[in-house]
Every structure is written in structure tokens, then in C-alpha cells.
Write a structure and sequence with these properties.
Elements lengths: L6 H4 L3 H11 L3 H14 L4 H13 L3 H14 L6 H18 L2 H32 L37 E3 L15 E5 L6 H8 L3 H7 L13 E4 L3
Antiparallel strand pairs: 1-2, 2-3
Helix pairs in contact: 2-3, 3-4, 4-5, 5-6, 8-9
Length: 237
């Protein structure tokens, strides 16, 4: 949906002005943070998307640059910068293809994300059972006597209930199944709890992963409707 504001209004936004000022002092990380704040204030700020596209391009984060340039085109399809932005998108995709075997990687990632989504679904179902069985459980971490339970006939030990199960920022969530029949322990899935001011870009940067990898791991994540406390899956770098 095209932006209802003109470029002049967008560029007068306080965070946008802060971003430009920080660029002038070569504080590029601070500039990125300021432009992201401008988008939090107004997700349709096409000028902020344009500046972030340029900034990420210089940081060689081509996937992030492509994302912001494409958002700019959607908001400003008739801009006199439109052709320039299209050319930059093409160039960034070429740069991205130099370091990524795009087709096979995409297929592998898709399969991995589908697997993660299914395991996360199973984990949520298990958590619901645990919540229902432990009346009065609130924000306190259960004592040792309540942290494990035995599965019915098999006697298999189930995942421990703790802060990690509830997706606190930076914690590791055990995948269902635990150790296999051969004693192998399956890898863990990290979850990030959204905080005030978080954006997909800032979360990806925090965990050292690409923006497109984060978005692919969270296909239902809407950057415009992120809520404090919302869980975001963090794939391994």
C-alpha cells in the first residue's frame, strides 16, 4: 500500500533526522538503529526503508538491503528513485548469489523450517498438557519435585518445565523426544521473546543471522504486528 506521507514529511521525523546526523558522524550502527526506530514510529516511512537499504548494502548484508529496497518500491512505486532502487536490488541479488548456492540452500532451509514448525507444534501441545496438569502455576519456576514427570507405560522421562519452555529471550527450548533410542540427544531450538523496540532486523542482528533466514523460520511473523512477549524462533546461524 503506497505511503500516505510525502518524502518531506517522512524526512522530518525525529528518528529519521537522528539517523542522518549519525551517518554524518560515521556512526553507522547508530544510524541503522535510528532509521529502524523511524519505521517503528511509522512503518510506511519509505524514506527510512531507502536509507536502511543503502546502509545494509554498505554493510554487505544484501538480504536486508533487498528487503528494505523492495519495501521502498511498494510504498513509492512512482518515485523518481524507483529505477535506481530496482537496479540496486538486482545488484544485491547478484552479490548474494556469489556467496550462496541459492536453489539447494533454499530447498534445504525449507525442509528444515517445516521440520522445526512441526516440532514446535508438538512442543506447544506438550506445554499445554503440562500447564493443565499443574494448577496454580504462574510465573514462578516449579520446584525440583515438579520439574519432571514420567510418561505412562514407557517410563520415558519428559522435558523439564522451566523458563526455557516459555520462550524467554535468548533461552533454549528442548525439542520433543529428548534422547533417542541410541542415546543421541537431539539439537535444541532457541526462542526469542519480543521486547519493546524489537524489529526483525534487530533480532536477526542480535543472534548473528540473516534477516531472510529469520523471516523464513517465522513465516507468520508480521513485522508491523509484533507484540511484547511474542515468541520468535531463532534458527542456528
Amino acid at each position: 500500500m503506497p505511503s500516505s506521507q510525502g518524502p518531506d514529511d517522512e524526512q522530518k521525523e525525529p528518528y529519521f533526522l537522528t539517523g542522518k546526523a549519525r551517518e554524518n558522524t560515521l556512526d553507522f550502527k547508530g544510524a541503522i538503529e535510528a532509521f529502524e526506530k523511524a519505521l517503528e514510529a511509522n512503518p510506511q516511512n519509505a524514506s527510512a526503508h531507502f536509507e536502511l537499504g543503502l546502509r545494509y548494502e554498505k554493510e554487505t548484508d544484501y538480504s536486508a538491503a533487498i528487503y528494505h529496497f523492495e519495501r521502498f518500491l511498494k510504498l513509492r512505486p512512482d518515485s523518481d528513485r524507483a529505477q535506481l532502487v530496482k537496479d540496486r536490488i538486482t545488484q544485491n541479488k547478484m552479490e548474494l548469489s556469489k556467496t550462496t548456492v541459492f536453489g539447494p540452500l533454499t530447498q534445504n532451509l525449507t525442509r528444515e523450517f517445516e521440520k522445526l514448525a512441526e516440532e514446535n507444534k508438538q512442543l506447544r501441545a506438550e506445554l499445554e498438557k503440562l500447564r493443565a496438569s499443574q494448577s496454580g502455576f504462574a510465573e514462578q519456576v516449579p520446584g525440583p519435585a515438579h520439574q519432571t514427570r514420567q510418561a505412562g507405560a514407557s517410563g520415558a522421562r519428559q522435558p523439564t518445565v522451566g523458563p526455557a519452555d516459555f520462550g524467554q529471550s535468548g533461552t533454549v527450548v528442548p525439542r520433543p523426544g529428548g534422547a533417542g533410542s541410541g542415546g543421541e540427544i537431539r539439537p535444541a531450538l532457541r526462542l526469542h521473546a519480543v521486547k519493546a523496540g524489537d524489529t526483525p532486523t534487530s533480532i536477526a542482528r542480535k543472534y548473528g543471522i540473516k534477516l531472510d533466514v529469520l523471516m523464513a523460520a517465522n513465516p507468520t511473523l508480521d513485522p508491523k504486528r509484533m507484540k511484547v512477549g511474542q515468541s520468535v524462533r531463532i534458527p542456528s546461524p
